[in-house]
From TrEMBL:
GO terms for cellular component: mitochondrial inner membrane. This is NADH dehydrogenase [ubiquinone] 1 alpha subcomplex subunit 1. It is a single-pass membrane protein. It comes from Aspergillus heteromorphus CBS 117.55. The chain crosses the membrane at residues 7-28. Its main location: mitochondrion.
């Protein structure tokens, strides 16, 4: 017994919705990462470098090839101070 043609329309709609959702997720990921591949398995070093890139260029994915830091970079120290409780 064959598959009735009425079952193909809902099946096509379901496949279309999954395809549109997947493509939308890929587009949003690509847009948020400035056209670069998404980072995965980030450790502390990667997070520190992302924070440095953010302070240097203003974006987490941007990198700079300048040999000198921009003005004001010496004042944006990433070191966090501990609160000492006496």
């Amino acid at each position: 017994m064959g598959v009735p043609f009425e079952a193909l329309l809902p099946f096509g709609i379901i496949i279309g919705c999954f395809g549109a959702g997947g493509y939308g997720l890929m587009a949003v990921k690509n847009w948020t990462n400035e056209g670069k591949r998404a980072r995965w398995n980030r450790d502390v070093w990667d997070r520190v470098m992302m924070e440095r890139d953010m302070r240097l260029t203003g974006t987490a994915r941007g990198q700079s090839c300048n040999h000198e830091a921009p003005p004001g970079f010496e004042l944006s120290n990433p070191w966090k101070l501990e609160k000492r409780i006496f």
